[in-house]
Amino acid sequence: MAQVTHLSVARRLDRCTVLGPGARAVIWVQGCPLRCRGCVAAETLPFEGGTSSTVDELADWLVGLPDIEGVTLSGGEPFSQAAALAALLDAVRERRPDFGAMAYSGFRYEALLRGAPDRRELLRRLDLLVDGPYVASKRHGLRWRGSANQRVIALTGRYAHVADEPDTSAGVELSVEADGSLTWAGVPPTPGFREGLEERLAERGFALRTEARREA
Length: 216
Ligand code: SF4
Known about the structure:
This protein is an alpha/beta fold. The chain has a single domain, classed as TIM Barrel (Alpha-Beta Barrel). The protein has helices spanning 55-64, 82-95, 109-113, 117-125, 193-203; strands spanning 6-16, 24-29, 51-54, 70-74, 100-104, 128-131, 139-142, 145-147, 151-154, 172-176, 182-186. It has a 7-stranded mixed β-sheet with strand order 3-1-2-4-5-6-9. Strands 7-8 form a two-stranded antiparallel ribbon. Helix 2 links the parallel strand 4 (70-74) and strand 5 (100-104). The radius of gyration is 16 Å and the shape is globular. Bound molecules: iron/sulfur cluster. Iron/sulfur cluster binds next to loops.
């Protein structure tokens, strides 16, 4: 697998409890080749933009975060930057071998398995995958995912227990950053959640920040 040293990142979050098991960091990569109607992350879709971050810098950040058990890779489409994300997980696990990894993909698991070698290499490093495109007509208040066609697939035994837990919405989390800006994370359980939240916040003089939050 070719050595890739940089990632284009739309956003990252130190700690989140609504995008996967336990408390996790989250990286939203920049760029997705799909265009699911009703995608809630429109700002992450263009491959232009984002923050160019090195694998080493992101690994240092993840290893230094306290009280998280792993990372969730979201986007954007993580498998469009598969080689860099695989390198990132390797770099983190050199120092934290127990670090958990979950990823979202708009592609089905079977398609990823048939795909390019770098995609299979990323799959090999994941514990949990949420696969498939968002389909608005199949929207459902399910845990960690927006529509009923999307599956939560345990790729290792680490999170096999999640299949026995209630499959209901984990909700969303709002964060107030040190500079006073607001961000949110999670899979909205209702259509129009984001627009409604932005409107209500705007009425009170607040704006949600959606752009990349750190410079590499
Ligand atoms: S795969 Fe995900 S990020 Fe890409 S368009 Fe669909 S919902 Fe949005």
